[in-house]
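dumping this here so i dont lose it
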């Protein structure tokens, strides 16, 4: 049977607990409704992360457009202009320091990006060899060094980056 006690407007639940191997009866823990704590956590999370997520989505779109524009809206591997074009990250988006770096992107058609044999996602080692052959080992190593360096942007820095990508 659970025992509840009220003290100064707060309800406490009496529980049995152990402290340094000693059993203690009727330890009082504040009883908060689970839903209230869960809702508060959701509000806190939504309040703290929304601006960063919103800016990140805008940066992703702007980065993709800038990479395609730089590459003349043409697949850099097969030269196609007619197929659906994707902007591919040379080093994963998870590397924050180069996620929105134009040098870390290349325009590829759907076949060269994800669908065909030797595509960037199906056979990354073949794609990496092709990329190094086209861009040069030094260029690839400098990009790799930047990708693996730690980087975290403040919201202000993300806004500046966004304005540089969209040209405002």
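and the seq i came up w/
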């Amino acid at each position: 049977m659970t025992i509840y006690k009220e003290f100064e407007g707060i309800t406490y639940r009496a529980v049995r607990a152990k402290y340094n191997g000693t059993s203690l009866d009727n330890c009082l823990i504040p009883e908060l409704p689970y839903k209230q704590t869960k809702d508060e956590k959701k509000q806190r999370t939504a309040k703290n992360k929304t601006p960063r997520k919103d800016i990140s989505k805008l940066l992703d779109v702007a980065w993709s457009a800038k990479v395609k524009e730089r590459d003349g809206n043409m697949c850099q591997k097969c030269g196609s202009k007619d197929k659906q074009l994707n902007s591919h990250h040379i080093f994963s988006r998870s590397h924050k320091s180069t996620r929105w770096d134009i040098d870390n992107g290349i325009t590829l058609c759907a076949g060269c990006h994800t669908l065909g044999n030797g595509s960037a996602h199906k056979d990354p080692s073949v794609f990496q060899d092709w990329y190094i052959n086209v861009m040069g080992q030094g260029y690839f190593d400098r990009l790799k060094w930047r990708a693996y360096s730690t980087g975290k942007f403040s919201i202000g820095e993300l806004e500046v980056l966004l304005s540089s990508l969209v040209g405002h």
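The two ends are 66 Å apart (CA to CA).
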